[in-house]
Specification:
Elements lengths: L1 H24 L5 E6 L7 E4 H5 L3 H6 L3 E4 L6 E4 L4 E4 L5 H5 L5 E9 L4 E10 L12 E7 L7 E3 L13 E6 L5 E7 L5 E7 L10 E10 L6 E11 L7 E2 L3 E7 L7 E4 L2 E2 L10 E6 L2 H4 L2 E3 L5 E4 L10 E9 L5 E11 L7 E7 L3 E2 L6 E8 L9 E4 L6 E5 L4 E6 L10 E10 L6 E11 L7 E2 L3 E7 L6 E5 L2 E2 L9 E5 L9 H4 E3 L5 E4 L10 E10 L6 E11 L7 E4 L9 E5 L7 E4 L1 E3 L9 E8 L5 E3 L5 E4 L10 E10 L6 E11 L20 H38 L39
Parallel strand pairs: 1-7, 8-14, 16-23, 25-31, 33-40, 42-49
Antiparallel strand pairs: 2-5, 3-6, 4-5, 6-7, 9-12, 10-13, 11-12, 13-14, 15-18, 17-21, 19-22, 20-21, 22-23, 24-26, 26-29, 27-30, 28-29, 30-31, 32-35, 34-38, 36-39, 37-38, 39-40, 41-44, 43-47, 45-48, 46-47, 48-49
């Protein structure tokens, strides 16, 4: 019930809009032009550009074209001259038959904006058809007792021309018994009647032959003839008489074949054969003889073919009743065909625009015309489309409609619309026609690419092979075609010191990222850069994302011993008093590892000793301590081999050799080795050089420690800011820095050392 209630207000809105738009477009008055039938093709009819008040260029620019009611291309508009010319010879009789005047309605359609120029073409008749009788010879049976003045109807001739060119008069050859009278009915048709001037005598002349001539009013006039054979009969003084001289009936056009149309009835007062009546169609055309059938005995008229109101809306039959004596009577039957709603509406598309660019304002999609061949309410129509579509129907003149968009379309929301135009008539039952139109929406580059993530984090292990695929970025574009084809690129780095072009590259087609060279965790632990995705639309749109690359550490650095130095000079000797107790700190091995995490966790182990069990190394801090009390039996010189090992996989290690000298005390600046005591007296000149060397080595050691600390602090700062720090290179490689702070250098220790250099 709600749907039906909503429909009628919508219909009223469409009708109101039709009236308003009709007033707005009624800029031209209807014109009438004329042309004579059988005029040659190409004949000039009118200058439409002048009559419409438009220039020839404007006619062409607005796509002017001629449309007739029956869609036959009888007229042609020359867009170069603005002239309306005949496209073919016109036959008035073929176009309009007996209808007079013969008028062909046509329209001139204009677009941008829509305009309809209405006009009529009057096709004038020429006298190109002669009168023709339905039979070359007609027979009349006339009783000899017929008095003068008796009228005998004759079959009329037919002329396809109209007006003055149609039949105007009938004549008969001169004779002593008859003359012809031309009778004019109310419908304009003329019928011949034979009038008896002198009584007949069968015994004197039983048969007469006359020539009947039909003349039209053309110039020059045309004529047609038929023979009239008159048989003189004996007396039969009562002719059949019809109950009605005119029968008027209405027959629905959907009546079945065989349906009874009318039954005529006549009576004859005579008896015998003179009273036996037979019925005949007095005058019949091909259309009548193929549509109706008359029963000669009963007078019933029945259909032998389906009726079509749209083709012929009425018929007139002349029926003759004849008795056995040759007398006859005549009546007419007027048959009106009643229209039923048997024709569905017709829809003709004049123009269609597809695809339509998205984001466009109100755009004309299609121009079409609707028509219903029925009449009355059966021919009145309404036109509609689905309610859930962004389109509107705008009516105009002559049942033309324009389908337009109600607003901008979005291809990303919907790229194709299937529109069903429904035309429904107002008959009972209602008939409708549906026409489907597919409208495509073309893409406009109105959507920028969008990355799947605003930031990406990638991990790559150091010492990678060059051109290694380290990850990918991906973006999507909801546009189509070239507007959705993306190109990836690296954005200039925010840090000007970051050599991004030598670190990574990106595949412009798929966003794959590659490391261009081997990365070193100890030199660069992380870096960040931007990537862009640009489509190929016009103008091109783009978006950005951030990528952070974290370098994973690999165990590629062996532990490095800072103390004691292993520089190829004279070995460092540690002095231990013999009075030292167990656990006495002899020295501490200081080592670092350039890796991080567990790769930089160091452990210490005593691999080899001159006297096993005398000394021990603490595994976590590298401190070398006495394992027991010293005795006089212990050798004075000891050589210890200490291994430093990290916790990586596979583990890496380094070793250092310690020289330990057992002494009785530390009262002298230094104690000479026992084997060098004998040579001490000879070594006095050399003592000065040894002292200088000792001072140099000590200074070099101190400088190395300071450089190590500086490099360590700089590396920590660079790891935190993804930047670099320039530090002068010292005697220790810069990559051997324990970033995690797990090296043993950070542990404080204090012990007394006396260095004795042995000179051989």
């Amino acid at each position: 019930m709600e749907a039906g209630g909503d429909r009628f207000p919508k219909q009223r809105q469409v009708l109101i809009l039709f009236l308003l738009l009709g007033v707005a477009l009624a800029g031209w008055e209807s014109r009438r032009y004329s042309v004579t039938e059988e005029t040659e093709r190409g004949y000039f009819v009118a200058n439409l550009a002048k009559d419409m008040g438009l220039g020839v260029r404007e006619l062409a620019a607005r796509g002017a074209r001629v449309v007739s009611e029956d869609n036959e291309p009888r007229l042609q508009l020359d867009l170069q001259t603005g002239e309306l010319i005949l496209n073919e010879k016109l036959d008035r009789e073929e176009m309009c038959g007996p209808t007079d005047p013969c008028v062909m309605h046509f329209q001139v359609l204009l677009k941008n904006p829509l305009g309809v120029f209405r006009a009529e073409l009057l096709v004038k008749d020429i006298n190109d058809h002669s009168p023709e009788f339905p039979e070359r010879e007609m027979t009349l049976k006339i009783p000899e007792s017929s008095p003068p003045g008796t009228v005998f109807p004759l079959k009329k001739a037919q002329d396809l021309d109209v007006g003055n060119n149609n039949i105007q008069n009938y004549d008969i050859n001169p004779n002593s018994h008859f003359h012809v009278s031309t009778r004019d009915r109310g419908d304009g048709r003329k019928y011949p009647e034979l009038v008896l001037d002198k009584e007949l005598d069968r015994e004197e002349q039983a048969e007469l032959r006359l020539t009947l001539t039909a003349l039209d009013g053309g110039s020059p006039p045309r004529s047609g003839t038929a023979q009239v054979r008159i048989l003189v009969l004996d007396v039969n003084d009562n002719a059949p008489e019809f109950a009605q001289t005119l029968y008027q009936v209405q027959v629905p056009e959907n009546s079945p074949v065989g349906a009874l149309v009318v039954k005529v009835s006549a009576r004859d007062s005579d008896s015998g054969t003179n009273g036996e009546i037979s019925y005949f169609l007095f005058y019949t055309s091909q259309e009548i003889s193929t549509t109706f059938e008359l029963n000669t005995l009963s007078g019933e008229v029945r259909l032998i073919k389906k009726l079509d109101f749209e083709t012929i809306s009425s018929y007139e039959l002349d029926i003759e009743a004849s008795d056995g004596g040759g007398l006859s009577g005549k009546c007419s039957v007027a048959i009106e065909v009643v229209d039923v709603n048997d024709n569905s509406p017709e829809l003709t598309i004049s123009s269609l625009t597809s695809p339509i660019p998205e984001n466009s304002p109100e755009t004309e999609v299609a121009l079409f015309r609707i028509r219903d061949r029925d009449s009355g309410d059966n021919g009145r129509m309404t036109c509609s489309i689905q309610d859930d579509l962004p389109f509107l129907l705008k009516p105009s003149e002559e049942n033309f409609y324009t389908l337009v968009t109600s607003g901008a379309l979005d291809r990303e929301s919907r790229a194709e619309y299937n529109i069903t135009i429904t035309v429904t008539d107002m008959g009972t039952p209602r008939l409708k026609t549906e026409h489907n139109i597919t409208v495509l929406v073309s893409d406009v580059n109105d959507n920028a690419p969008a990355f799947t993530q605003t930031s990406y984090t990638l991990w790559v292990r150091e010492n990678n092979s060059p051109a290694l695929h380290i990850g990918s970025v991906s973006a999507t574009d909801t546009d189509a075609g070239a507007n959705a084809q993306l190109t990836y690129s690296l954005l200039p780095p925010q840090d000007p010191h970051l050599p991004l072009a030598s670190l990574v590259s990106i595949n412009a087609d798929n966003g794959h990222l590659f490391a261009l060279r081997s990365l070193d965790y100890e030199a660069l632990q992380a870096f960040e850069f931007g990537v862009g995705a640009t489509d190929r639309g016009s103008p091109a749109l783009s978006s950005q994302a951030r990528v952070r690359v974290l370098v994973l550490d690999a165990n590629d650095n062996s532990p490095f011993v800072l103390y004691p130095l292993q520089n190829g000079s004279a070995p460092c000797t540690e002095l231990v008093p013999r009075a030292a107790e167990a656990g006495y700190l002899v020295t501490k091995v200081v080592a670092v590892d350039g890796d991080s995490g567990q790769n930089a966790w160091l452990s210490y182990q005593l691999l080899k000793a001159t006297e096993p069990g005398l000394f021990g190394v603490w595994p976590h801090n590298g401190e070398v301590r006495t394992a027991r009390l010293l005795s006089e039996r212990d050798a004075p010189k000891h050589r210890l081999l200490v291994q430093v090992r990290d916790n990586g996989e596979p583990p890496r290690s380094a070793s250092v050799t310690l020289h330990v000298l057992l002494v009785d005390g530390f009262s002298q600046p230094y104690l000479p080795l026992p084997e060098a005591a004998a040579e001490q007296a000879r070594a006095d000149p050399l003592t000065v050089y040894l002292v200088v060397a000792l001072a140099s080595v000590s200074s070099l050691f101190l400088l190395s420690v300071l450089l190590f600390v500086a490099v360590r602090l700089c590396r920590r700062s660079r790891a935190a800011s993804l930047g670099g720090c320039s530090v002068p290179e010292g005697p220790f490689p810069g990559h051997l820095v324990d970033v995690s702070g797990t090296g043993t250098l950070s542990q404080s220790y204090q012990y007394e050392v006396r260095l004795i250099y042995t000179v051989f």
